[in-house]
Design brief:
Layout: H1 19-39, H2 43-56, H3 61-73, H4 77-90, H5 95-107, H6 111-124, H7 129-141, H8 145-158, H9 163-175, H10 179-192, H11 199-211, H12 215-228, H13 233-245, H14 249-262, H15 267-279, H16 283-296, H17 300-312, H18 316-329, H19 334-346, H20 350-361, H21 368-378
Helix pairs in contact: 1-2, 1-3, 2-3, 3-4, 3-5, 4-5, 5-6, 6-7, 7-8, 7-9, 8-9, 9-10, 10-11, 11-12, 11-13, 12-13, 13-14, 14-15, 15-16, 15-17, 16-17, 17-18, 18-19, 19-20, 20-21
């Protein structure tokens, strides 16, 4: 019987949890909850959790980074900078604080500072593709072509066809007017994602063709973009400008007007549409559009357009008056001098025309059109 009732061993007493361990566990729990709330965009609740951590442990790195992340999510970048900077004061080299701080400086347009912080981050993790592309983007923003290209290409060495690097290289070359190189990278993006292409890739390729004056090719890509979004500004603008380049003014004005249906007070588009109507010799319609632009605010191109209409109608004195006023606000614009001189020629005042062109040359600016017209008048 004694074998059946073997005495149970007496359990050892459970050691009491220290106050330090309790505090540590509480911080870990609050930190976990705070970041989960942040992930769900519950910023205020997350901030409450992080502040409770700071009450338990002043200058806790998780809490300071968490508060910075919350402010960054709310786009309160300057407040976020304070939290990240405070974290780095007490915890130098904290990757999360470095990343957040650099991202804030980028959002604030402080690209030099962003680069400085990201470079610090890369000392700890030099193969982080996300950071490398961000640094390359920042160098692009400050017009540092060489460093930007080096980093984008470094990303492509690590991850062939990385979309951020390809898009970045496209923008980089476009910004520096290297349109063929930009086209190469954006075309590569299109080839990789033909079935689910981003509309911005199509408009970017279209813009390259627009700049290269291969307008027919540009039209193809802008039309593809419009099939994805019939109101896309860049596609409508690109089509209008390509048709303008092909001197198909009626098609051009069709798309300028489509933009104006969406944005009737767009001064730039009003003057472009005015130009198209003027080139179609629909002067009353052109004047209406120029006046609509001027009703918004003064616009040099609208005034110039009206002056050109007066000139084309033979109202040279009125054209001269407008052009002379424009010279006061834009005294180095060679086109104004050419048009003004031509008005004087039409009024049989050759000497005044010569004096007008000589006035431009006194600026020391070389312009072959001005020189050519002056030579013709003097000989």
């Amino acid at each position: 019987m004694s074998d059946l009732f073997t005495e149970m061993p007496i359990p050892e007493p459970i050691p009491e949890i220290s106050e330090e361990d309790k505090r540590f566990n509480k911080i870990a729990e609050l930190s976990k909850n705070g970041y989960l709330l942040l992930k769900d965009n519950c910023c205020e609740e997350a901030e409450n959790a992080f502040r409770k951590i700071l009450a338990l442990e002043e200058n806790n790195n998780y809490a300071l980074v968490g508060l910075g992340d919350a402010e960054r999510k709310k786009e309160n970048f300057r407040q976020a900078v304070e939290y990240y900077s405070k974290c780095l004061n007490f915890h130098p080299g904290n990757n999360y604080a470095l990343f957040g701080l650099a991202d804030c400086y980028k959002a604030l347009g402080m690209y030099d500072k962003a680069i400085e912080i990201w470079e610090q981050y890369l000392q700890h993790d030099d193969k982080n593709i996300t950071v490398l592309t961000r640094v390359a983007d920042a160098y692009r923003k400050i017009k540092d072509f060489r460093h930007s290209k080096i980093l984008y290409l470094r990303v492509l060495d690590m991850e062939e066809n990385n979309p951020y690097a390809l898009i970045g290289l496209g923008h980089l070359h476009y910004d520096f007017k290297e349109y063929r190189d930009a086209l190469y990278y954006w075309q590569k993006m299109l080839d990789l994602n033909e079935a689910a292409v981003d509309i911005r890739v199509l408009t970017s390729i279209g813009n390259c063709h627009r700049k290269l004056k291969t307008f027919e090719k540009g039209i193809y890509y802008f039309q593809r973009a419009l099939r994805m979004d019939e109101n896309n500004f860049y596609a409508l603008f690109g089509l209008a400008d390509c048709y303008r380049g092909l001197n198909q003014q009626a098609k051009s004005v069709e798309y300028w007007n489509k933009i104006l249906e969406i944005d009737p007070n767009n001064k730039v588009i009003l003057t472009r549409a005015g130009d198209a109507y003027r080139n179609m010799t629909e002067y009353d319609k052109a004047e209406e559009y120029y006046q609509r632009a001027l009703d918004i605010e003064f616009d040099i191109y609208a005034v110039l357009g009206i002056a050109m209409i007066n000139k084309q109608r033979g109202r040279y004195e009125e054209a001269i008056k407008s052009l002379s006023q424009l010279l006061q606000s834009d005294p180095r614009n060679y086109r104004l001098y050419l048009e003004l001189a031509d008005c004087y020629v039409n009024l049989k005042n050759k000497q005044q025309a010569v004096d007008t062109l000589l006035q431009f040359q006194r600026f020391g600016i070389r312009n072959h059109l001005v020189t050519e017209m002056l030579h013709k008048l003097q000989n």
